[in-house]
Amino acid sequence: MKKSIVTILLVMMMTIASAEENPFFKPFEGPHATAPFNDIKLEHYESAFKRGMAEHRSEIDKIASDAAAPTFANTIEAMEYAGAMLTRVSNVFFNLLSAESNDEMMEISQRLSPELSAHSNYINLNENLFERVKSIYDDRNSLGLTPEQIRLVEKYYESFENSGATLSAEDKEKYRNLTMELSKITLEFGQNVLRETNAFEMLLTDEDDLAGLPKSTIDAAATKAKAKGKEGWLFDLTGPSYTGFMQYSARRDLRERLYMAYNTKNVKGGEYDNRDNVQRIVNLRLEIANLLGYESYSDYVLKNRMAKSAEGVFGLLDNLAEAFGPVARAEVKDVQDFASEMEGKVIEIMPWDWSYYSEKLKDSRFGINDEMTRPYFELENVKKGVFGLATELYGLQFVKNPDIEVYHPEVEAFDVLDEKGEFLSVLYTDFHPREGKRSGAWMSSFKGQYVKEGMDSRPHVTIVMNFTRPTETEPALLTFSEVNTFLHEFGHALHGMLTRTTYESLSGTGVYRDFVELPSHFMENWLKEKDYLDRFAFHYQTGEKMPEELLQSIVDASNYNVGYLTLRQLSFGYLDMAWHSLEKPFVSESSTPVRDFEKKAMERVQLLPVIDETCMSTSFNHIFSGGYAAGYYSYKWAEVMDADAFSLFKENGIFDKATADSFRRNILERGNTEEPEVLYKRFRGREASVDALLKRSGVGK
């Protein structure tokens, strides 16, 4: 009996000791207070989340019950600085859930999802807290606050209002239940997509199946197969593997097989089918919007966007569809005619044919394809080119710091220094696909920027991509599109790294969804400029510059299929708005199942035959698991601004430091401290015009 008590006590002591060793329980002590990834274990997350929520709740209770009259300092600022530990663990966990996940992390996220939702509701539906915020909000213009402080007050008030603070007690309970259910289902949606993406493999063992594929694609497939202990060539649904095969494979049957696997994700039945989740998500969002007094979810979302309303969004989409539609249809006819001539018979272009034949036509017309440019886009050279552009424009320096711990051996960490050599930010880079990383590319932060007690606490930014891997014989050689993606995400990173605000809630990329894509799209413009390409596009073996004629071909081909690509993006925007402009619940058992609804939503800009078995909605992470619900249009909205902004560089010089300094001061540093329209006008001197986009795309007057 005594022995069992001693054993129990020892176990308890070990548990307590283990808990005290949890790296999230105290501020990080790595270089620049970076996360100690080497010390973080799976078992640390749940205890850190639970303690973090408890500490945050205690801080909120103290603010809400303060006997002193509400002030900006004891209410708004106190809320802003509360929840430090919860923020630490959340930033690490959710970044790694996307970039370095596994089944255990997914299970943890599912367990935590309802608790985190309940915690958020506890704050947002706290009546005493809201009354304090409201009293400051009502008097905000007479309290002697700075413009940034007023902006923060407005942000908190709107957050409470948008989260049901003004509802009755009964409706608050409904809101709690709806949001908890929604958070769980959106999480499940994204995890289903990741699991189904990882589940598919196409292993080829006959060399005849490789017809048309370039050596780089074949080598990558062989490396992928070998890594999994298999003989042959392995293709899957990750970006480089899928895209390379669809562009170059002469085997139409295999292109169709791969296309169907990619475009029937989560719609074939079974445990990962997302059709029911689509219905539940859109209906829950509609119910929440209705509860808050809006007719549709888009009405609820867009009131705090530059577009302001669904009418504003559809106005943009319709105008671009009208401008680019004729161009797109002509492009499809060109590819159709080229394919028929190439094959010596009439070919009806199917979706799995587009990349293949359009790439062949591009090569024929401009004498250029990805395999010709790959040797000049070796990843290390591209990094120098992308980082070098920030040096040229903003004076930044990137110094690799081996003392900063990373979450995977392939990840690199850099100290980013400003033009005076002072520390500005940490930048993590994560370039290649692997199991546990979701598809696509994104920028995020492990730590935001803020100023407290006179100290500027600088951000820790990460950019994550799924670029072509090195093989046993070659380094990572990127496609033009991958370089473009690098610049895009790096634009987001600059927005996060250069920010100079007082409050983290207003810093960096925490801006309106239809403004956040401006810095990212903006950076893409340089890739079509010969003067820029000439600075880093060197052959990875010889070191020779990209030939002048190849450089010119890139520029000449920059608008190739611009109409098709525009309508493709518009189709995603129309689909998003169709789902989130519903004013009545969607019932898939009726005459409009998910596929039929999708087809109707996209039909205005549909250019190729629709395959009945396919469905995009069921794997559309951006709108059903990410933050782009009723916001996918923002890519095109921002594209109007980025073309207009870059036109000023075209006038003054693409490396003009005065223009770059203005963009930095008025856009990149300001975060959400002012309305985006005000910031943009301050930079450009006027509102953005669509004319520059049309001119850049070759469809202007």
Word description of this protein:
This protein is mainly alpha-helical and 701 residues long. Among the domains are: 2-166, Orthogonal Bundle (Neurolysin, domain 3); 200-263, no CATH class; 374-562 and 635-697, Neurolysin, domain 3. The chain has helices at residues 2-20, 42-64, 72-81, 84-99, 103-124, 127-138, 147-162, 169-199, 215-227, 239-248, 252-263, 275-291, 297-302, 310-343, 351-366, 370-373, 379-394, 480-497, 513-516, 518-524, 530-533, 548-556, 562-580, 594-602, 621-624, 634-652, 657-668, 676-684, 691-697, and strands spanning 202-204, 233-235, 397-400, 412-417, 423-430, 442-447, 450-452, 455-457, 460-464. The chain has a 5-stranded mixed beta sheet. Strands 1-2 form a two-stranded antiparallel ribbon. Helix 6 (127-138) runs antiparallel to helix 7. It is globular and about 85 Å long. It starts with a helix and ends with a helix. 44% of the residues are buried.
Short summary:
With 701 residues, the protein is mainly α. Helix content is 57%, strand content 6%.
List keywords for this structure.
701 residues, mainly alpha, Neurolysin, domain 3, two-stranded antiparallel ribbon, 57% helix, globular
